[in-house]
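Help wanted!
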Amino acid sequence: MHVGASLPDAWAARETFRAAGPETGLVRLRARGSDGRMGPQKTPRTKIQTRNRETILEAALEVFSQHGFRGATLDMIAVEAGLSKPNLLYYFPSKEAIHVALLSQLMDTWLDPLRDLDAAGDPIAELLAYVRRKLQMSRDFPRESRLFANEIVQGAPRMQAALATDLKALVDDKAAVIRGWAEGGRIAQVDPHHLIFSIWALTQHYADFDVQVRAVLGQNRDPIEEAARFLDTLFTRLLAP
Amino acid sequence: MHVGASLPDAWAARETFRAAGPETGLVRLRARGSDGRMGPQKTPRTKIQTRNRETILEAALEVFSQHGFRGATLDMIAVEAGLSKPNLLYYFPSKEAIHVALLSQLMDTWLDPLRDLDAAGDPIAELLAYVRRKLQMSRDFPRESRLFANEIVQGAPRMQAALATDLKALVDDKAAVIRGWAEGGRIAQVDPHHLIFSIWALTQHYADFDVQVRAVLGQNRDPIEEAARFLDTLFTRLLAP
DNA sequence: GTTGTTTTTGACCAAACGGTCAAGGCCACG
DNA sequence: CGTGGCCTTGACCGTTTGGTCAAAAACAAC
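Answered by r_m:
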């Protein structure tokens, strides 16, 4: 069983399970009302439940990030998790529910680096630190990056709501901070939203398009190490007032 | 039937059908030897064959780029093309063959802007023009961009060979040109490969992650128009010697 | 119009897939 | 140690999917 790099404490500790927006039409699936026999509650109760839900989500991350939603099968996930297929469906009502759970669980963590952008700090240092943190995530959590990439490239059918609400709110907030810096002459005049997009694009590229990057660079090179230096100069030059 | 923006002549004219590398294990599928009944030859002979192959590939582009390889079904493509499913399989031996044909047909066109990078031109003007051309492709051919994105995010199972040979060769070639410019002091000292990656990442982001960009920016904005300005300043600042 | 070839399709098939169910195993707790 | 609830699974089901096939339709050449 492939478990990937051991997750940092903050990562494992996060168990927010933010509910998906009602527009996805998926919440109904989870709320089976109070009919007869059913799987465990939304909030895991026993030790076994928390452990198995974690195992399943870890396996699902591995499989979904590699094959996309349609490309992944319950059998693949079951094998990866070391559980039987009906057992998966004891903990999650459907394949889609596993996917949604994964996405909403990881969303917060994925945006943490942006949240850390501190309006009170030194503008250029703050932004460069953000770039470095995002690049680190591409190195340490490429599967998470690809999971989102797969979802968004295909039109984010299970995430649109979260994008237009939560994500937009956070980005608008931080964009205002950046705009403040620009107007105060502390960084160059650049469009804050597109600055954020550029950071996403440039850092996630090294996770999402890893095979291409490696194919072009050839062997015996460390793409992310090189990218760190390149992006440092790029953003230093771009942001200098 | 969704036909998308009318393709420019140069686009439609291209019919290279570069053979996929033998490593993909797909070429064998096309070469059914000389057994009994079989579909039309690799090289279309009649008018009807060329027309229908084009129709199928156009439909396949629409469907594959939206749903990925596994997410797309032959029925979807058939409906989109206005043909029957067995008819698709009269022109292509399998779903995978359609996908491979699409990828190899589009690969060349996709790289044309990079090929146009002229060692004899003015370095900064050449690079800025490349950025603009790539961004135009994100606007005019988002489906093509997403097709590749889907493929590469999932590990490029049907393209690895082409990446490590054709693509690498072209990029290495152009990287040498850029390195020459840098060493001649005509542009700033930057890693040429990562410079090219950054152009890909920043321009294709607006096609591949379109839903995210639009969700964050809100309505009534033209992402690519704004991106054009932003990327112009970004690369101007980065490349100034 | 007859004939030989190319093109098209309805009916069909086997495998894969998401999901169900009833029954059995397991475990905590009294 | 017994009992009630939690956990697990083999067998099964209906649907979807990629692909086949034989036969019909369309077409081209004479």
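OP: Thanks! One thing I noticed: Residues 99-240 of chain A form a domain with the Tetracycline Repressor; domain 2 fold (CATH 1.10.357.10).
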